[in-house]
Amino acid sequence: MQNDYIHLILADDDEDDRLFFTDAFSELKMNTRVNTFNDGVELMNYLNKEDALMPNVLFLDLNMPKKTGIECLIEIKANTKMSGIAIVIYSTSASEEDIEKTFVLGANIYIKKPGDFKKLKKVLSEVVSINWQYHTNSLNKDNFLLRL
Amino acid sequence: MKLFLKFDFNTVSKKVLEFKFNEFNIKHKILGFGEVELLKKLTSDEYETLEASLNDYGIEIVENEKSILVQKIKDAIVDMVFNEDTNVNVKSSVYLSERLGHSYGYLSNLFSEVTFSSVENFMIIQKIEYSKQLLLNTDLTLTEIAFKLNYSSVAHLSTQFKNTTGITPSAFQRIIFKRRDIAQQKNNSLH
């Protein structure tokens, strides 16, 4: 278990947010591999590749150019190959409408992007460890909803 | 006549593993070098035959005693939460140390070390998991569920649910029922 690593992907058009995200994980003790994509099209091109390594957890920004987070979410949920990925909505919005809509569409976790780096690290480590519980303890993924 | 051979050990090992797992009809995923994920649990008999057969090829299954004990702690907790026949009149710390034969302090430290989480936290997750199941698949009210799961009050369960998942039990129920409706509609339009 200790030698395992967790594969994470973030799709976000904001360069600073991508940087904070990778920095946060490099400072956490967990064994993770992080890939980032700049928009929804880039992300879906990667996931649709025949030999693509599927992430354990995918973080989706909602407002991205070309293809929004919601459009990606719908495509991913319609694709059986990608059904095992835990989906985290990672957004500056915390509107109840966005939250309920993305949950209903199949997202597992909704995070409002925290304002400071310390909080970000805390939230991200919480996400990964709870997801790890689901992964290793055969909890029912269909019932996995979390809002942070 | 003599043949000179060059081996690619990665490929050899992978092929041997594939061959063995297929021989025993075990669905699996080879995750990388030295790591295989089994898609179902093996009985201890199946495990032993597989282990012996792999040993013939010089392949050893690495067992980590700590990980095994952690698995036992988890199994005991799941049994306690989900199985109503298991005696829960004693405190959970007493139950765990009696069942596993170690002090609670030892078990709890070990658990945190291996899982990056705590026994208490794991227990809460399992209880909330069970209450989710009951909310979705039975007609029990939240009050009845709280009683069934030994919460002191419905407010206690409701707060713990919200703290653990970030949403209220009723929002949870509403969202999952909406998902089911959508899936149902999709199904209907296909036929």
Description of the molecule:
The complex is a heterodimer of chains A (148) and B (191). Chain A is α/β, with parallel strands linked by helices. Chain A has a single domain, classed as 3-Layer(aba) Sandwich (Rossmann fold). Helices cover 41% and strands 19% of the residues of chain A. Chain A contains 5 helices and 6 strands, in the order E-H-E-H-E-H-E-H-E-H-E. Chain A has a 6-stranded parallel beta sheet with strand order 2-1-3-4-5-6, sandwiched between helices. The longest helix of chain A is centred in the last third of the chain and has 20 residues. With 191 residues, chain B is mainly α. Chain B folds into 3 domains: 54 residues, no CATH class; 54 residues, no CATH class; 74 residues, Orthogonal Bundle (Arc Repressor Mutant, subunit A), CATH 1.10.10. Helices cover 66% and strands 5% of the residues of chain B. Chain B has a two-stranded antiparallel ribbon with strand order 1-2. In chain B, strand 1 and strand 2 form a beta hairpin. In chain B, helix 3 packs across helix 4, helix 3 packs across helix 5 and helix 3 runs parallel beside helix 6. The chains are: A alpha/beta (148), B mainly alpha (191). The interface between A and B is medium-sized, with 23 and 25 residues.
